[in-house]
Amino acid sequence: MNFPITRMRRYRKNSKIRDIVRETKLNKEDLIYPIFVKEDLKDGEKEAISTMPGEYRYSLNDCVEYAKELESKGLRSIIVFGIPSSDKKDAIGSPAFASTGIVQRTVRKLKEETDLVIITDVCLCQYTSHGHCGLIKKNDDTDFGFEILNDESLEYLAKVALSHAEAGADIVAPSDMMDGRIQALREILDENGYYNTMIMSYSVKFASSFYAPFREAACSAPSAGNRKSYQMDPANALEAIREAELDVIEGADFLMVKPALPYLDIIKTIKEEFDLPLATYNVSGEYSMIMAGIENGYLTEDSIMEALLSIKRAGADLIITNFAPYALDHL
Predict the structure, then answer these.
(1) Closest among 275, 258, 276 to 267, alpha carbons compared
(2) Who contacts 77 (Cβ-Cβ below 8 Å, separation ≥6)?
(3) I need a labelling partner for 189 at 20 to 30 A (CA). Which of 9, 149, 161, 297 fits?
(4) How far, in Å, CA of 314 to CA of 154, rounded?
């Protein structure tokens, strides 16, 4: 029926009506907070991240205390990113799978003192001397004179995941984008009795310029070259479906699309194609861009919740976001 019988503004006439007809709702349990734990920091010496206003690197104990504060506000999940001492980094990223590593120690303490779901980032980039997500080898036929080795890297990524599971992680989240890594992780976890440790795959991770602030935050920028030979081309959508499908076959428990805001169409497509829970990462560049707009008066804080709602509306079940503390205070 047409106007005047049908009046769409009836649904918007006041806040009570808008609340009950709202189609997309953001809940506190939808949020995952990414936290940076730096091995070299002493308690009370949280380190401001210059490219991410309001965000910090924390010592182990300060990380746990802040996690407890967020949990008291309703946070259910956290993802831990470790930053080892720079003098410990090596060609194979051995600090990433050390039982005494910064992530492993943080996970154990978080499990002791919180009821949060603990997710860990499984990668080598923060821990290697070269800053790439896998092992490298000289190869003059490539763009930069070296290649990132796929199959050889799987063994080390699997070691990282196992060390996180042994520390108590509920979910391991491989972000490296090596082919076959979900199968490699599932096999080593099952072989060691960690059948119930879940895998949240960074299934569709694009080679995005929106990661720049994170690389400063995690001290993980590559020393040479870029990550375009293993992360996805931003122009490709069908490839995203193939990547996600392979991860489903290999045993992923969650899928993920990263970044979020520039890839809402991909989020929608992956959600429609697969029935696994879907996480998305509202990445550092998205966070910093909105924060810069707010700080300069170009945007208001209302843009934060609007951005998060758009991600949920596109189909995300879970959102990894540095806006989690703000959202917890406004939901």
Answers:
(1) 258
(2) 29, 31, 32, 33, 116, 117, 118, 119, 318
(3) 149
(4) 32
